[in-house]
Amino acid sequence: MNSKPLVTIALPTYNRSEELFTQALESVLNQTYNNIEILIADNCSTTINIKEILLRYKNDSRISYHKHGENIGMVENWNWCVNKAKGDWINIFHDDDVMELNHIEKVIEEIKNKREVSFVFSIPTVFFENGDRCTDWFNVDLKPEKTYSGNVFVYECIKHEQNLICCPTVFVKSDVYKSNLPFSSQPIFTTDLNMWFKILMNKHAKFTFLSSHTLNYRIHTGQLTQVYISDLKGILNIEFDRVIAHLDFTNKSKIKLFSLKNKLRNTLSNFKSAIK
Prior knowledge:
This protein is of the alpha/beta class. It has a single domain (7-275), classed as Spore Coat Polysaccharide Biosynthesis Protein SpsA, Chain A. It contains ten helices and twelve strands. It has helices at residues 18-29, 50-53, 74-84, 103-111, 150-160, 174-179, 191-200, 224-227, 232-246, 251-275, and strands at 7-13, 36-42, 63-67, 89-92, 98-99, 119-122, 125-128, 133-134, 148-149, 171-173, 206-210, 215-219. The strands form two sheets. The protein has an eight-stranded mixed β-sheet with strand order 3-2-1-4-10-6-11-9, sandwiched between helices. The longest helix has 25 residues, at 251-275. It is globular. The chain starts with 6 loop residues before the first strand and ends with a helix. The relative contact order is 0.14.
């Protein structure tokens, strides 16, 4: 592969505070890897003037800005970003997170000799409003920087009943991303997970992940995840049931996964009853 492929960092945004948006944008602008397109998709913000903020960076030709005439919703904004992206690789970055200076460089360095890989993500550092930080995003037996078949991680997510992939860390080859559009809007909380499953369940899909913790994922009360946090387990199970029933598993694999998932649910139920 080209050792310096064009990477699109899509930055969909809506009514984010100027402070957080600026931190996110500048963390991308300051990357050590600079062959990037920064595609800002403003979903008709009403409380912040993104265009005015971007005047500070008017001489940076890597920035492309578009404001929708009306709010088209998060999912359609993400679809728009992927469709408009010019890069060989596409990353949908969150407007409230922060990349370490070498984040993109680390990703490209890892995949440059892995031609078969079309999906890459990394383990983030989670940071909270009170300043606390955590690097324990997930615990699986897979080894970072190795190449795996996509269905391996689908299985891990279902086994652990968690979305183990942190959305803003994900880089996908452009043709793979575009061919798997659109993002699903039902349920909204698992929009990203639904897309990852569609991509990874292809029999040719290969992925790798990095343990470098070069992306800081912010947890705060203003993010969509926190709105649905009380319904997290139920919403994830809806997605897992859909995936098991409808994606290209063999019947034998379906039975194993359903059996495992039901066993996990029963164990959790018994545990809850025991501690009442």
